[in-house]
Amino acid sequence: MSHAEQPRSDAELAEETERIVAFWTELSLPGLFDVHSHFMPKNVMDKVWSYFDSAGPLTGSVWPISYRYAENERLQVIRGFGVRHFTSMIYPHKPSMAAWLNSWGADFAARTPDCLHTATFFPEEGAAQYVDQAVANGTRIFKSHIQVGNYSPNDPLLDGVWGTISDAQVPVVIHCGSGPAPGTHTGPGPIAELLQRFPKLPLIIAHMGMPEYVEFLDLADRYENVRLDTTMAFTDFSEAGAPFPRNELPRLLDLQNRILFGSDFPNIPYPYLDALHAVRRLDLGDDWVRAVCWGNGAALFG
Q: Which InterPro entries is this protein grouped with (predicted)?
């Protein structure tokens, strides 16, 4: 546990759970659909948590992990919140790692039926083959992390990957914005180039493209298979450093059917409830909140 964290009491977690259930119950939803949550092999999750424990100098913010529990406890928590469907959002930071993660992801999905079968990739020899295999094995969603992987989405080693994904129409949650810290290949430019080559790609822009919100909304306007997830966007934590421009709010209404709720659970530095309140306080109407928090995910994944 990092120095910035205080263990949550059972009473605090029970109160938050009650308030989250009240949130979706009042909207007459069957629960929540979270397209951006993280379950990983323990050794990988431990390294991710270690990164966030030291991320203050990189992001300018202390980053406590709000749900630093063992895997089975995390599953109990997210299910208790009423999240009916979620993801495992695995991603490699080096070669020769993605295929192993995909094997773990397939096993996790098999024993966790409410988790969408998640897979990933890296620009390396054989990537097209293991992505083909992942699609054949029933992968429902891919994760690409441009910042952590430090690779260009236009690396020629990924051409076969994008071709397969475009043909199969399996959505890819892609962390490509320059927040919380920019990378060599982050920003809207590389994604614009990618979409020019593969205009049918079903991309879900993580974190609303933070902080380049406007440019990624422009890409969603231009390409009908581009969606965005709300992960960390609009919260007090993110608004302090990368505020969403209020004059762009009408565009969120225009794109109502292509915005999906995501949380980044368990790696968030605030309560899960904050992410839901952040979506609702945009004041875009209950129908918009219903679409984002349930309907769009249910429609996309069936």
A: ACMSD, Amidohydro-rel, Metal_Hydrolase
